[in-house]
Amino acid sequence: xxxxxxxxxxxxxxxxxxxxxxxxxxxxxxxxxxxxxxxxxxxxxxxxxxxxxxxxxxxxxxxxxxxxxxxxxxxxxxxxxxxxxxxxxxxxxxxxxxxxxxxxxxxxxxxxxxxxxxxxxxxxxxxxxxxxxxxxxxxxxxxxxxxxxxxxxxxxxxxxxxxxxxxxxxxxxxxxxxxxxxxxxxxxxxxxxxxxxxxxxxxxxxxxxxxxxxxxxxxxxxxxxxxxxxxxxxxxxxxxxxxxx
Length: 245
Description:
The chain has 245 residues and is of the alpha/beta class. Helix content is 50%, strand content 11%. The model has no long low-confidence stretch (mean pLDDT 90).
């Protein structure tokens, strides 16, 4: 039996609430724009923040943004009506990112180029519509995989930050799912029948990526050590708070 998306699991609510408090992600009066790709993680984050908005002692405004990269086989436009039913301020931007990548990409992967382009679009729309905070849906698994990639291939101790101010200084980026596991968002999205848009990007599925490799490696290690991700989170905490916000 599916449950209402308006009642996320208490386990997810506790973890997100703790992350927001630990890293001072949302402050009174903030206008928060949630970036939703159409995947299970970002849709889960959207509903968790909607739930917290109605119950948290801190008053903040919530909006949603989806960037459509106009990739054949991937169409998130159906989400616009869904957002409307939720009563959310909605921004929807179409951009032919794959065509632009073919013309302008130089020495970069398509995934990295696409992510950079989408981030720039979201920053611009935050400014144009008066949102000072951009909420992204990466979770603990993503952070752990990024750490491994950085160590193995970059020789650095780096991962995604939980909360930071961008270089221009006018916007903050938050990741409220940093304490949550991917299996938790997957279970919630399935149980609540969230309208996940299948990701059919050929650039992402033509061949296994470094991230896929480390995802599988960490899954194998976790079978032998159930405390693995808790230990990784403890090791990464100093990296999550680097820099000023």
